[in-house]
Amino acid sequence: MKVEQIYTGCLAHAAYYIESKGVAAVFDPLREVQPYIDRANKDKAKIKYVFETHFHADFVSGHLDLQKKAGAEIVFGPSAKPAYEATTAKDNQIFEVGDYKVKVIHTPGHTMESTTYLLIDEKGNEHGIITGDTLFIGDVGRPDLAQHVVADLTEEKLAGYLFDSLRNRIMPLSDDLIVYPNHGSGSACGKMMSKETTDTLGHQKKVNYALRPDMTKEEFIKELLTGLTAPPGYFPKNVLMNIKGYESLDKIMDRATTPYSPEAFEAVANETGALVLDTRNAEDFAKGFIPNSINIGLKGSFAQWVGEMIPDIKQEILLVTYEDKEKEAITRLSRVGYDNTVGFLKGGFDAWEKSGKDFEVTNRIDGSELETLYKNKKPIIIDVRKKSEFDSEHAIGAINVPLNEINQHLAQFPKDKPFVLHCAGGYRSMIAASILKQRGWQDFTDVRGGFEDISKTSIPKSEYVCPSTLL
């Protein structure tokens, strides 16, 4: 049986495509559906079903556009209550895709409607399981997301359901089955996902901490809930979009691909209060950017950081991109529900600069320059990496303010003395720098190579710091 995994690294997301005798099915599609349609056309196949493992939190699914464009039937697992036409399957129900069969296995825990799909080949042999966020490679889905939508679904209650689903519905299955999860390493939907994106169930039973056969339910719940960080703020908003429906990506693209001259761009920004989002790389942004713009580089974890740093999913956005990157930026914004892009700067930042309009810059230095500065002046160093990264190793005396918490800890950034900003490699620190510039900070410097550069210098490092010294 051929199962095609369609993996999108920037979201650590896996969709799946199967086809038999001119009939195809797609599992957990992303917002832009044309690639799936093109794939089916290549096989001269019709997409009959779009299967959803659950109401996703970290992206907006493309199921509604696939229903509209391909005539696909949307299928959710038991207990799902979407606000649009869809099939809510029964536990153990079987769907036919040509000579293949797809069996519904209800596995609540990550969410109540979470469902695993058992794939059966043309000979009747069980091939694999598409597990959504129920079972990852090396991990299982976090059980604390649904409570942000339904308050009664506490994380402890969901963790208990997940324990039962894994023990009673997944682990009794054959060791030879291939596990096809919805996410890989880098996703916020789990704690310790592997970089591998498939494995056998038998191997997972041996190495996945959550599948230990001697683990009690109480131990499972405690271990699963330990170390969970707060989910990104956009997660519950994406869930609601997946439940209630959304606007077609085609309409969003038509509206968003409006080109503006520098003069018109400035006027629209002033009139609408739109956020100016600059998606160029950090080095180019540092050399010149539109005042009050925010930098989140397209070549990085763009969608996740947009979701973390722009609280209002309905915020109107004006884009500054490299030439011919506008549609990519719009698509990647819409993947996480930011559908209100109102246009882009025609000609990019070069056009703005040539028009004679004011722009700002921000200082950047490399590790060796910081080393000299450190020896002479002992500057304040603010590290915007995650706490786990900081605790692993950091410059002695550095202050840790994780990027996703920057708005809650602005008081830790001094305005009366200079400071140095860094992350791991320069991507996140430029996001922080652009936010600080927008809020009025001026006297700071960013380390372009981040801690990767700092680690190569003689600046003293520590592998642990008492949390009380971070304040």
TrEMBL record:
* Pfam families (UniProt xref): Lactamase_B, Rhodanese
Keywords for this protein: Metal-binding
Task: Give this protein's Gene Ontology molecular function annotations.
Answer: metal ion binding; sulfur dioxygenase activity
In what residue span(s) does the Rhodanese domain sit?
270-361, 375-463
Task: Output the InterPro entries linked to this UniProt entry.
Answer: Metallo-B-lactamas, Mito_Persulfide_Diox, POD-like_MBL-fold, Rhodanese-like_dom, Rhodanese-like_dom_sf, RibonucZ/Hydroxyglut_hydro
Q: Name the CDD domains on file.
A: POD-like_MBL-fold (cd07724), RHOD (cd00158)
What name does UniProt use for this protein?
A: Glyoxylase, beta-lactamase superfamily II
